[in-house]
Amino acid sequence: NVVQVSAGSLHSVALRSNGTVWAWGYNGYTQLGDGTYVDKATPFQVAGLTGVTQVSAGWYHSLALKNDGTVWAWGYNQYGTLGDGTNVAKASPVQVTGLTGVVQISAGYTTSLALKADGTAWAWGNNSYGQLGDGTFTDSNTPVKVSGLTNASQVSAGYLHSAALKSDGTAWSWGYNGYGQLGDGTTFLTNVPVQVSGLAGAVQIAAGLYHSVALKSDGTAWCWGSNGYGELGDGTGAASILPVQVLGLTGGVQVSAGYSDSLAVKSDGTVWTWGWNAYGQLGDGTVIGRIAPVQVSTVAGQTFASMGGYHGISVQAYVLTTSVSVSPLTQAYGKVITLSATLKNASLGGNLIGKPVAFTVDGVAVGTAATNASGRATVVVPSPLNYGVGAHTFTVAFTADSLYKAATATGALTITKADSAISVAATSGGPGNSKYLYASLKRKTDNKVLSGRTLAFKVDGNAIGTAVTDGKGRASLLYKFSETYAIGTHTLSADYAGDTSHNASTGAGTLAVVQSGTKLTVSSVTGRVGATILIKGKLTRITDNALLNAKAVRFEIDGVEVGSAVTASGIAPLSFTIPNTLTVGVHTLKALFDGDVFYSATDSVGATLTVK
Q1: DSSP letters of 168-191?
Q2: Percent of the chain with pLDDT over 70
Q3: CA–CA separation, 210 vs 181, rounded Å?
Q4: Residue 317 — very low, low, confident or very high, per pLDDT cuts 50/70/90?
């Protein structure tokens, strides 16, 4: 009932399905955790540890992660490798100081790493080459945060360098780089993470002695760094400062890096190794080094394996139960639909990282995503407008792999009506002006315009007409200003009644009524003294040349008012008898309009009265 193993330099650690930890091998630094320095040739249980979900064996120390997110360590501690705030070796497990919420651990040479559920990485121990990644070269016997690394999904501690994966599939590394094991195209060390060049789609990483190994989502393995023993597996034996593909290896599901050797487990349960083999650690029945993968003899049906300093370990299939959970989601129509699920190890507790979870809505597949450091997988549903208002069902499914059983869950997706918003443009004009009134309609959830919708326009609450929104969501209504509304500012509103997917809404703007200009004309007339003549003044509105009625027009001759008349059909007629006081000759004739609340004042020019 072993579910995970880890091979250290000269000792081994195993985790059983009941959450207990077992160890065997060399114990010169108390790395077996039994309270002694006595080597063990058979497994024994590490006392005081229960509820463990993961183990990791370093060179001379060991780590365990419990299901409460705490980390425990024992063994060599000269550089603070155990993270308990001291530099004294511990023969039994002690808790790493101040570290909670951890989801993954890795023990290196004299350095330890932990990944927290928030995607941050923490390190402690030896920092001579910057392998803690905190921007210094100072050792630390308590955890320090790896600088600038966010959204991490896995960490791995090597000999003098460290590595991590991010949730976007990129790989990052820091520390010693004399053999190019950081994979950034240089041999310069760094005390902060740098990106591994040209590597994308990675799902697992392992840091070894002077090399690194990564597994990509397509099942291929890639290596970089030292290659003196063929540990890169590319068939050349030449070192590389950039990732190179492991020769002929496909279908990989897990990788591990040892001293100068490497290992991969394939989906068919076979284990493949390459590199240094002086102690038979490649398991192929020989002690001959390999520059390309060879199959471990007689081993089949394996689910997990670990390459150590001088040996390797693999686990026969033991399938763990899983649980996947979802929460109901209520969302407005048109808003981006983001579905999420959390995948956990139901047998041991803790989150499952880097596992694919498939999502469907109403039975139609919408996407697959890998779980992050919190065990959470998230998918953005394409074409959210395809899902109308009402109740929908989404399902999430994790497909069984060599170590974990399948799990499914169903959730309720409720789409509610979207709120709409109307913006109304301000407009002004005087009586006689014909202008378009504009209003725009949008959906609030995604700010998209709504076309083909009818908007009802009103002035001060009085309906004046309707218009339909165009492809830009804009409705336009031709409106002619009149004397219906007084000079000044009025409320111009537009109403949308809503539909099956959108709530009703109202928008308001302003309609400013201003005075219109006028034009007054008088025709020249001729008459004899004592004769009665008809003088006509014509008053029109400049905006549309309309004739104005019921407007008083005054008449002057040589600046002296001689009478007034009211317009009818725009004409103000004045019957005038020429008095004998007017001399024979040409006189100035003028008509005047004094204006009113809607129209500005004006007078005529150029007309004459000729007296004979």
Answers
A1: TS-EEEEE--TTSTT-SSS---EE
A2: 100
A3: 6
A4: low
For residues 11 and 309, what is the distance between their CA atoms, to the nearest angstrom?
Answer: 9
Distance CA 535, CA 458 (A): 44
For residues 32 and 23, what is the distance between their CA atoms, to the nearest angstrom? 6
What average pLDDT does range 398-418 have in this prediction?
91
Handedness of CA 238, 240, 244, 249 (dihedral sign): positive
CA angle 185, 212, 167 (to 5 degrees): 85
Residues near 324 by beta carbon (within 8 Å), at least 6 away in sequence? 341, 342, 343, 344, 357, 396, 397, 398, 407, 408, 409
Please report which residue ranges of 209-320 form alpha helices under DSSP H. none
Judging by beta carbons within 10 Å of its beta carbon (0-12, 13-18, 19+), is residue 425 exposed, middle or buried?
middle
CA dihedral angle for residue 356, residue 362, residue 363, residue 366, rounded to 10 degrees: -40
How far is Cα 283 from Cα 296, in angstroms, rounded to an integer? 5
Q: What is the pLDDT of residues 118-133, one digit of tens each?
A: 999 999 999 999 999 9
Amino acid letter for position 381: V
Terminal Cα distance for the chain, rounded: 133
Residues 6+ positions from 592 with CB-CB distance below 8 Å: 520, 553, 554, 555, 556, 601, 602, 603, 604
Q: How far apart are CA 538 and CA 548, in angstroms?
A: 9
The answer to whether residues 137 and 144 touch, using CB atoms and an 8 Å cutoff, is no
Q: What is the pLDDT of residue 318?
A: 66
Return the minimum-mean-pLDDT range out of 167-171, 314-318, 372-376, 517-521.
314-318
Q: Please give the structure tokens belonging to residue 180.
A: 């190019």
In 317-469, at which residue ranges do the beta strands (DSSP E only) sit? 322-325, 329-332, 338-345, 356-361, 364-370, 376-380, 390-398, 407-416, 420-424, 427-429, 434-443, 454-459, 462-468
Q: Record the tokens describing residue 380, joined without a space.
A: 């953005």
Cα–Cα dist 467/453, whole Å: 8
Residue 107: closest CA among 184, 31, 192, 18: 31
Distances (CA, A) of 106 to 100, 156, 253, 372, 574: 15, 5, 19, 17, 109
CA 252, CA 265: separation in Å to the nearest integer? 6
Q: Which single residue is written with the structure tokens 């007017």? A: 582
Name the residue type at position 216. Answer: K
CB proximity list for 493: less than 8 A, separation 6 or greater: 424, 457, 458, 459, 461, 506, 507, 508, 509
